[in-house]
Write a structure and sequence with these properties.
disordered N terminus; 102 residues; Ribosomal Protein L30, Chain: A; 3-stranded antiparallel beta sheet; two-stranded antiparallel sheet; binds L-tyrosinamide; alpha+beta; 5 strands; 3 helices
Length: 102
């Protein structure tokens, strides 16, 4: 069932059940060993923040135990988590990164 156009095409009405894609926060978790400069570099590289913003986010994580670096679609969030974890592991730091539905 659809709306007939005079050029012969039919526009189907979108089903009401279609939902907007879920969004996910990507968070860094604090630990006692990862150097502050490394965390700042990670935030700049993977979350596209300037130096000042990256320092603020890092200090908030250091103080509060965790902090949001950005909000993304599920696929992008999960890719960011994997890239951050793999970079930290390769560098020998225990930095943890997780995603959480908004
Ligand atoms: N707490 C760490 C230190 O004192 C710094 C740090 C900040 C580690 C944020 C992880 O997600 C983190 N060196």
């Amino acid at each position: 069932m659809g709306i007939n156009q005079d050029n012969g095409t039919v526009l189907e009405k979108q089903a009401q059940k279609v939902k907007p894609p879920s969004l996910y926060k990507v968070l860094l978790l604090n630990d006692d060993y990862t150097p502050m400069e490394f965390v700042v570099a990670i935030i700049r590289e993977y979350f596209n923040k300037d130096g000042e913003t990256a320092v603020q986010i890092m200090l908030a994580v250091h103080r509060d135990g965790k902090g949001v670096c950005g909000v993304f679609s599920k696929d992008i969030a999960s890719t960011k988590v994997e890239l951050v974890l793999s970079h930290a592991k390769k560098a020998g730091h225990p930095l943890q990164c997780v995603m959480e539905e908004v």
